[in-house]
Amino acid sequence: MKTAIIGAGAIGSLVAVYLTKAGGDVTLIGRKDQVKEIGKNGLKVRGARGEETVKVKVLPRLEKEYGLVIFTVKTQDIEAAVRDNQTFLKNSLILSSQNGVQADLYLKESFRQENMFSSIVMFGSTYARSGEVTFNFEGDWIIGKPFEPVDSKTREIADLLRTAFPVVVSEDIVGMKWLKLFVNFNNCIPALTGKSMQETFSDMDLCQLSIMLLKEGVEIVGKEGITLVSLPEFPVERIMGLIHMPIDQAAGIINKTLTTLSQEPLYGSILQSIMRKRPSEIDYINGEVVRLAEQLKTDAPLNRKVVEMVHQVEQKGEYFESDFLKEDFGLNIKM
Predict the structure, then answer these.
(1) What is the separation of C-alpha 335 from the centre of its chain, rounded to a whole number of angstroms?
(2) How far apart are CA 19 and CA 15, in angstroms?
(3) pLDDT in tens, 45-79
(4) CB 100 within 8 A of CB 281
(5) CB 274 within 8 A of CB 316
(6) What is the pLDDT of residues 259-306, one digit of tens each?
(7) Is the torsion defined by CA of 259, 271, 210, 318 positive or negative?
(8) Structural domains in the chain?
(9) 181 with 288: CB under 8 angstroms?
């Protein structure tokens, strides 16, 4: 199956490298600067599987129909990506890979449901610059159908992706996406500090903030009656345990987990966008909880404040000092 990947950022570049290495017929679609750099020097990847440079076919937009098109742009960029490539998308199988739960609803406006597939990326990657990415850690690629039962085409796509990554087929990809939203909930805090996940969450007070945001978010989703579905290596009980145990104990788990997740600095998807001077996906992660709260005629004050502050960082390019965050969110400041 000829495959196009629209979005030459952290995940798109990584997927293009390893599907190409596995012998796939793969074309990566990127911005002009990315196309120029990758076309000239190839894609350099380092990290979990070593360091190498791989020649990848790269274009600024689709030039023909592909059997499978994987969207790896951020949710807020989907509409433009579809518009720029719509001439050759009509008959393709479409696979989303975005964080949050809105991407499939956006894509539904342009594609037939039977041609739509959804996925959750559990491996981690950091975009360094055009043509260079870091593979931070391994993980599953979970695939399913957002609006219909899993079918033979789902398994065909899974087999293709399995040549490069461990793949799991899910019968409830939507429920899993809601749980993955909470896995990504911590990304907002490094976006406020401008520091790596490791450095940010070495501060136990900021680990407590992550638990406070998580607890508020899970409560709002529960009020809406949304069912979270366990991921293969991340059960729902892990999230529920964190929000019900004493906050100091929960913060200790966050500290241990996020400071040891990757040997290379890990910045999180939201901060990566800000560092590239591009809009982040905060509205589709913590902002999703704020939207739900508004629909329920209630409030999610902590997450609303985080969303507002991340937008402030985007606009001004200035990060917050840790002590300011602690005071603003009413955390314990150890002098």
Answers:
(1) 36
(2) 6
(3) 999 999 999 999 999 999 999 999 999 999 999 99
(4) yes
(5) no
(6) 998 989 999 999 999 999 999 999 999 999 999 999 999 999 999 999
(7) positive
(8) 3-171 (3.40.50.720), 178-328 (1.10.1040.10)
(9) yes
Strand ranges in the chain using DSSP code E only, listed in sequence order? 3-6, 26-29, 43-47, 52-54, 57-59, 68-71, 93-96, 116-121, 124-129, 132-137, 141-144, 167-169
* Phi, psi angles (nearest 5°) of residue 70: -100, 120
- Look up residue 303 and give its amino acid: N
The residues, any chain, with a CB within 8 Å of residue 73's CB and separated by 6 or more, are 6, 7, 9, 12, 81, 98
* Tokens representing residue 132 in the block: 């260079």
What is d(CA 145, CA 152) in angstroms, rounded to the nearest whole number?
A: 11
SS3 100: coil
In 87-235, alpha helices (H) = 103-108, 152-161, 173-183, 188-193, 197-200, 204-223
